[in-house]
Amino acid sequence: MKTKIGFFDFAGCEGCQLTVMNLEEQLLQVLQLVEIVEFRELHSGSAEQIDIAFVEGSICRPGDRERLLEIRRRSDILIALGSCADNGGVNALGSDRTPEVLRQEVYGADLPHLYTETPHALSKLVKVDYRIPGCPIDGQEFLAILQALLLKQQPELPGFAVCVECKLAEYPCSFDYGQVCMGPITRAGCRAICIDGGTHCRGCRGLIDNPRTSPYHRILEEHGLTVEEILEQYRTFNVNERPA
Ligand code: SF4
Ligand code: SF4
Ligand code: SF4
After folding, report:
1. Nearest atom (ligand 3) to Cα of 186
2. pLDDT tens string 185-214
3. Does ligand 2 lie within 6 Å of residue 193's CB atom?
4. From the CB of residue 52, how many other CB atoms can be counted at a distance below 10 Å?
5. Counting ligands in written order, which one lies closest to the CA of residue 188?
6. What is the pTM of this model?
7. Which of 29, 149, 154, 190 is the most exposed place for a label (fewest CB within 10 A)?
8. What is the distance between the alpha carbons of residues 66 and 227, in angstroms, rounded to a whole number?
9. Residue 56 pairs with which residues in a beta bridge?
10. Which of 10, 13, 14, 55 is the best mutation target for the ligand 1 pocket, counting ligand atoms within 8 Å of the beta carbon and taking the most?
11. Does residue 181's CB lie within 6 angstroms of at least one atom of ligand 2?
12. Does some domain include residue 157?
C-alpha cells in the first residue's frame, strides 16, 4: 500500500508548495511510492488518515488553530514546510505589533478576517515531528526528507553553516564586496544559492544550533560585527530565533 501524504497551507505565499509542484519529473517518480491524498493546489480530495502531512504557513487567522489541530489528529507524522510554518518566517515580523495595528499598517484598513492574532509557528500549537526550513524550501531537501521517512529513517538537517557550502563551491565572499551576509550563522542545505546568484544570505533557513561557536564566527569578527548585530540586520526570517 502506498504511503498517504497531504499538503496543507495556512498564512504564507504558497511558494513552498509550488516548489514541490515544480519538481515535476521527480514528483512523478515519487508518486510510484506515495499517494497525494490532499493538496489543494492539485485536487479537491481529502482523507481521514494521513501518513505524512506537510504543513505550510503560520497560524494567525480565525479558524487556523482548530484546523491545525484537526490536521494533527489525522496525521501520523506532521512536518513544518518552510520558514513560515517552522519559525513564523516573514509573517512573524509583525510580532511586535497588535493585530489591530498590523492590519492598519499593512492594509490601511481594519480587516479582522486577515489577522486575529500574532503569527505563530506550528510548533507553538501542535507537536511538529520534523521541519523543512527555507523560504522557499529546497526541493531536493524535501525529496531527501521524504525518502528518509519512506525508508523509516530519521531525517536530518545539516548542522553546519551556509558558509561551508559557499566555501566548498569557492564563491567570492559577500563581505569582501561590502555586503553583510548571514551565512556564518545560518543553517546550510540550500547550497548557498543566494551567493551563487550574486547576492548575500538573509538567513531564510534559520539559525544553526550554536551560532556563537560557529568556526565561521571569525568572519564576523574580522569585519567588526557581532552575532547580535547581524541578527538585528536580518530579522526578516528570524524574529523568533535568538541564540542562547
Ligand atoms: S516560507 Fe516563504 S515561500 Fe514558503 S510559504 Fe512562507 S513566505 Fe512563502
Ligand atoms: S559570509 Fe556569506 S558569502 Fe561569505 S563565505 Fe559565508 S556564506 Fe559565503
Ligand atoms: S543563501 Fe541564505 S537566504 Fe539564500 S536560500 Fe540559503 S539560507 Fe536562504
Report:
1. 7
2. 899 999 999 999 999 999 999 988 877 666
3. no
4. 21
5. 3
6. 0.91
7. 154
8. 37
9. 9, 81
10. 13
11. yes
12. no
Residue type, 90: V
Average pLDDT, the chain: 89
Domain tally for the chain?
A: 2
Q: Which residue has the cell 531564510?
A: 204
Decide which of 150, 179, 198 is a domain's last residue.
150
Residues with beta carbon inside 6 Å of ligand 3? 134, 162, 186, 190, 192-194, 201-205
58 falls within a domain: yes
Name residues contacting ligand 1 (CB within 6 A). Answer: 12-16, 56-57, 82-84, 89-90, 135-136
Listed residues 92, 125, 150: the one ending a domain: 150
Please choose, from the candidates 139, 153, 145, the residue with its C-alpha nearest in 3D space to the C-alpha of residue 193: 139
The one-letter code for the residue type at 139 is: G
**Amino acid identity, residue 24?**
E
CA dihedral 77, 78, 82, 85 (to 10 degrees): -160
Q: Give residue 89 CA to ligand 1 midpoint distance, Å.
A: 7
What is the CATH number for 54? 3.40.50.700
Residue with the bigger pLDDT between 227 and 140: it is 140
What is the tens place of the pLDDT at every residue in 30-71? Answer: 999 999 999 998 889 999 999 999 999 999 888 999 999 999
